[in-house]
Design brief:
There is one protein chain. With 177 residues, the chain is mainly alpha-helical. It has a domain of 96 residues: Glycoprotein, Type 4 Pilin, CATH 3.30.700. 32% of the residues lie in helices and 5% in strands. It is built from 2 helices and 3 strands, in the order H-H-E-E-E. The protein has a 3-stranded antiparallel beta sheet with strand order 1-2-3, covered by helices on one side.
Length: 177
């Protein structure tokens, strides 16, 4: 008597007949998606994008405002460090450039650069502007014209000023920039 298990299954168990398969399909089953299924999936994705994208872009705008405010505070801190080393804030002709490179007459006292990576630009690619105070013993105003690059504006186009600056007074973009 042969004790080996039977290695061949009956043909009825291994082969599906064409009669067992649903009409229009191969015996192996469906091989892809129909055009209607693809169109429905694309419509659902488009609907989700239409609902979610405005919220994401709104977050991007608010994050740019937050980044600009943070960069203004960082520049203010650098200005304070400059004042501690030099004894005064940058003069109008020196501007914010004094934070990155020493003015010729202050090389011996200058301990900068005061900003890692040089002077930052605002989130919209423009340089931050600086208006010195009337007395160089007081910190001037660091500001950005916002996403429109023009003085004034509202919402996302509003100008951003350093702390304590009067936002009603539009600074000029004179030589202290």
């Amino acid at each position: 008597m042969d004790t080996r298990p039977d290695t061949q299954a009956p043909a009825a168990l291994t082969r599906a007949s064409a009669a067992d398969a649903p009409s229009g399909l191969s015996p192996r089953g469906r091989s892809g998606y129909s055009l209607i299924e693809v169109l429905i999936a694309v419509a659902i994705v488009a609907l989700l994008v239409a609902l979610i994208a405005p919220r994401l872009f709104g977050q991007l705008d608010s994050s740019q405002l937050t980044a600009a405010r943070t960069q203004i505070r960082m520049i203010e801190t650098a200005l304070d460090s400059y004042r501690l080393d030099i004894g005064r804030y940058p003069a109008p002709e020196e501007g914010l450039a004094a934070l990155a490179a020493p003015p010729p007459d202050l090389v011996d006292r200058w301990n900068g650069p005061y900003l890692d990576g040089g002077l930052p630009t605002d989130p919209w690619g423009a340089a931050f502007l600086y208006r010195p105070a009337e007395s160089l013993s007081r910190r001037g105003v660091v500001y950005s014209y916002g996403n429109d690059g023009e003085p004034g504006g509202e919402g996302l186009a509003a100008d951003l000023y350093s702390r304590g600056a009067n936002p009603d007074e539009t600074p000029d973009a004179g030589p202290g920039t």
